[in-house]
Amino acid sequence: MPEQRAPRIVGESLLPEERLRRRADFLRCYKRGRRQYGRLVTLYVLERGQEAVCPRLGITVTRKVGGAVARQKIKRRIREIYRRWSQRRQLPPYDILVHVKPKASQADFTTLQTEIHHLLQPLIRPEHQAG
User: Fold this and answer.
1) Vertex 129: Cα angle to 124 and 131 (nearest 5)
2) Number of domains forming the structure of the chain
3) pTM above 0.70, yes or no
4) Which domain holds residue 67?
5) Do the beta carbons of residue 16 and residue 52 sit within 8 Å?
6) Exposure string (b/e) for 65-101, b if CB count within 10 Å is 16 or more?
7) Tens digits of residue pLDDT in 52-92
8) Is residue 10 part of a domain?
9) CATH code: domain of residue 118
């Protein structure tokens, strides 16, 4: 009897198809993506083709931000902010690359969250925005 797999639970977790993983995808975002600047991060946003279903998130943190521990901490915070954002499912299928600036290492979680939400908000499709 063949083994049955449990269905994929689509909840708050970021699935592999919701992450930028390949170097070519990161480079494409840097080269062709539309930029949105903040004090702590810069977003590079690139529209994907019609076959794409969901947005993908990528994060880059250079050594200017700090050592390995500091860089990982920032990445975890950004993933958590994006993962728990209630409007994440309303985003069109974009590639979103978050490039962290050195100032972000001194920012607290709430400040980082406020800035990222502020930069992501204009990306939501007009028919999904409340108000």
Assistant:
1) 155
2) 1
3) yes
4) 17-123
5) no
6) bbeeeebeebbebbeebbeebeebeebeebbbbbbbb
7) 788 999 999 999 999 999 999 999 999 999 999 988 888 88
8) no
9) 3.30.230.10
Strands in 34-37's sheet, in edge-to-edge order, are 34-37, 41-47, 94-100, 56-61
Residue 31 covered by a domain: yes
Contact 47, 94 (CB under 8 A): yes
Q: Tell me the mean pLDDT in the region 111-126.
A: 91
Q: What is the rounded distance in angstroms from the CA atom of residue 75 to the CA atom of residue 99? A: 10
pLDDT tens profile 14-40? 888 889 999 999 999 999 999 999 999
Contacts of 84 (CB under 8 A, 6+ apart): 12
At residue 27, the 3 state secondary structure works out as helix
> In the block, which residue shows the tokens 């958590």?
80
